[in-house]
Amino acid sequence: MSYIKRSRRNSRLLLIVLGIVILALIALILIRTGVISLGGDTEAQTTTTAMLTPVGTADNTPGAATVVPTPGTAMVTATVDTPIHNGPGENYEIIARLSAGQIAEVKGISRDGFWWQIVVPDGGGTKGWVNNTDVIAENIENVPIVDPEEQPTSEATSAPGTGAIVTAKTNVNIRSKPNVISEILGLLETGQKANVLGINDNRSWWYIKIPGTESDTGWVITDFVTAENTDNVPIVDEDGNPLPGQIPIPTPSPGTPTLTALANVNIRSGPGIGSEIIALLIQGQRAQVVGRNSDGSWWAINIPSADLGRGWVSADYVTTENTDEVPVIDG
Question: Of 153, 179, 211, at which residue does a domain stop?
């Protein structure tokens, strides 16, 4: 009987020792993983950094660790997906991006106070610029003013045959057709420029070359861009092909004799409905008046690429200004 009691007592002792060993192993694992600190700090301090998608020359070495600024360092935290430019302005090249929540060290501020110069995370020491509206800044009391090292560049130049450029007033989708239900091919970002190749027949969409591509094209709605040098932009169909007989019509200079189409009106080679149709003046489109026929029922307008450098529209479908002194011209 006493033997049985001793056996039971020994079994309990073994279970207690085994439990102590297991608890000690668990504690050791927790200490090694940082869940338990022997220094008395009971709150684990972790920083989550989103993945950066570098563009261009930024170093994107696989496995490179994102450097988190030490406490007290001037820094910014992105509130949204934020482009990093190589200078303080939208016209500078985008070299990388900060994801929402990502942190970067601040090195300077632009003279206008709108842009922070930062160290590009995972960028091998590369510096870039972010707009202050897209980030939250901390510890920036002693940040110096920094002038840009690069000059602004644009991906757009005067396009052969048109010379026209559009600039995005806000981020605007580039679509495959001139309507809001067609496929989205890309994004024209705020301040980004693109070469214009044409415009649709009601002048609500620009047909452009997609920046950063060799020959890809698409459509952007006119409401969200500003346009320059559009005198020679042809009217094109949804595939970018010029409409039959369509030729560019220069926009008149301020103060010159001008007419404005009240409706879509044919432009003819001479002052009469029997003359050949050479182009179309779209409702609201303006043209420079260079003459009229003898009874004032037809106006001659400036079209450099047409025969004799002009075309004719019926006076019934246009309004005019500054035309009192225009000469009478034989068809």
Answer: 153
Residue that terminates a domain, selected from 186, 213, 228: 228
Counting Cα atoms < 13 Å in the Cβ hemisphere of 236 gives 22
Query: Domain containing 188: what range?
Result: 165-228
CB 124 within 8 A of CB 59: yes
Structurally, how many domains does the chain consist of? 3
Q: Do the bridges between strand 265-268 and strand 277-281 make them parallel or antiparallel, or are there none, so unpaired? A: antiparallel
Strands across the sheet containing 184-188: 184-188, 172-175, 217-221, 205-209, 193-199, 165-168, 225-228
Give the pTM.
0.41
In a domain, 160, yes or no: no
DSSP letter assigned to residue 7: H
| 51 and 139 housed in the same domain | yes
CA distance 46 to 136: 19
Judge whether 311 and 300 are in contact, CB under 8 Å. Answer: yes
66: helix, coil or strand? coil
> Could you tell me how many residues make up the chain?
331
Q: Are 289 and 320 in contact (CB under 8 A)?
A: yes
Per-residue pLDDT tens digits for 211-247? 877 778 999 999 999 988 776 677 888 988 777 656 7
